[in-house]
Every structure is written in C-alpha cells, then in structure tokens.
Amino acid sequence: MNFINLSLCVYKDGVEPNQLSFQDGASAITEQLIFFHDDVMFILVVILVLVGWVMLTSFTNKHYYKYLVEGTTIEIIWTIIPAIILILIAFPSLQLLYSMDEVVDPSLTIKAIGHQWYWSYEYSDIEDEPIEFDSYMIPTSDLEEGDLRLLEVDNRVVVPVNTQVRVVITGADVIHCFTVPSLGVKADAVPGRLNQVSFLIKRPGVYYGQCSEICGSDHSFMPIVVEGVSQEKFINWVASKEEEL
C-alpha cells in the first residue's frame, strides 16, 4: 500500500461512497469551519425540537394555546431569545471570516491559472528559475489500483507542511473556482483579476479538490491535487523539476 492509499485510509482526505460528513481538516481553518458547523447544527437541532414541541403542545392543549395567541411576555421572549442566539452565532462567524481572509507573510507563493479545462501552476519564488507546469486529469483507463476516478492528475501541486503558502488565483478564459475542501480553500479564478488564499498544511497527505464553477462542457474534468510533504522532500522535488527544465 503506497503513501496515498495509507493517507486515505487513516484520514478522510478524499471522497467516499455515500459520504455525508466533511473531509478531515488538514489546516487550522478547516478545523475551525468544521467546529463552527457542528456548533450551529447543535443549536439548530435544539431550536427545531423546542419549537416543534411548543407547536405540538399548542395543538393538543388549549391552556398552552391561549398563552401563545397574545401577550406581552411571550412577544418579549420570542424576540429576545432569537436575538441572543443570532449574536452567539454571529461573533464566531465573523471571527472565522476574518481569519480566512487574513494572509500572513507567506513562505511560498504559487500562482494557479484556470483553463478550459485544466490547471496550470507557477512557483515564482524559486531562486534559480520559476517552475511552471500544467496539470491534467488522468483518464480512467490510465488509473492505477487505489487511484480516485476523476480526481487524479498527472502533475500535483507539491507544498511543504508547516509552511505558510499563498495561492494567487486567476482564469485564462472563463470563470473557474479553485477549491480544496480539506484545506478550507475556495476562491474564484476570474480572468483579468487576481484572488488569493493562504493555508498551512499541518500533516503530510494528498488533498483533492475540483473546480466548483460551471465553466463549460468539461467542467468536472479539471481536478486539483495538493500533496503536502516534508521540507526535505519538497527540496528534492524542486531539484527534480529544475532538472526537467
């Protein structure tokens, strides 16, 4: 079993049949997104159960019904309580939004360009010569055992773990969307405009994403694969890419 399959077995870094939950977070932002979702879902379930119980009781008991028809007290209660709940949800939501938009000093910058229908990448921070390559989906007929259909590519985006990475995103023809769920990354690739996202991968692994914008007939055939490796392996990868140039 290779490293890719082992990573998918230990962590949910790829899609699974009948999957309902999120993929496992590989960055701090993704973990915060999952925690926030779980907290809001808990509040939602409590509200649904409470409101359902009140409605059911009012239908079956006339004594409850008369208190719900009119009255200053009940008006104050169902105005103040929802306001408090919304405030409790709003503050962590805004904090998370600001954390996602914040771009600290990156150690590595990668430019991702969306095409119909593939991605091209540029490592412009490399001292000797920038590394540029295109990334195409591997056809189903060429997949090896354990590979994910419609998600594997011939050239992966390789980044070091525990390193702040910035991705500058744009489109060459139409609007695309650069999305990697496990990293909490999603940004539109708009022609003539630069968007940027940043992430820090906490553990080695292979993380899959897809274009999330309907960009044409082959929209579902331009996957994104980010591989997190150690610093030593990343240096070796850069050296091997430079030898190919």
Summarize the structure.
Pfam families: COX2, COX2_TM. The protein is of the alpha+beta class and 245 residues long.
Describe the secondary structure blueprint for this structure:
Layout: H1 3-10, H2 28-60, H3 62-69, H4 72-101, E1 108-115, E2 118-123, E3 131-135, E4 157-160, E5 164-171, E6 176-180, E7 185-189, E8 195-200, E9 205-209, E10 224-229, H5 231-244
Parallel strand pairs: 1-5, 4-10
Antiparallel strand pairs: 1-2, 2-3, 5-8, 6-7, 9-10
Low-pLDDT residue intervals, each spanning 5 or more residues: 1-6
Number of strands: 10
Class of the largest domain, according to the CATH hierarchy?
Mainly Beta
Average residue pLDDT? 86
Q: What is the terminal separation in angstroms?
A: 31 Å
- Main beta-sheet strand count, sense and barrel state: 5 strands, mixed
Q: CATH superfamily of the largest domain, called what?
A: Cupredoxins -  blue copper proteins
Q: What is the string of SSEs from the N terminus onward?
A: HHHHEEEEEEEEEEH
Global morphology: elongated
Number of domains: 2
Strand content: 15-25%
Estimated helix fraction:
25-40%
Biggest sheet, spatial arrangement of strands: 3-2-1-5-8
* Reported CATH architecture of the largest domain: Sandwich
Oligomer: single chain
Overall SS class = alpha+beta
CATH fold annotation of the largest domain? Immunoglobulin-like
Domain Cytochrome oxidase subunit II copper A binding: 105-240
Family: Belongs to the cytochrome c oxidase subunit 2 family.
Transmembrane segments: 40-56, 76-98
Main location: mitochondrion
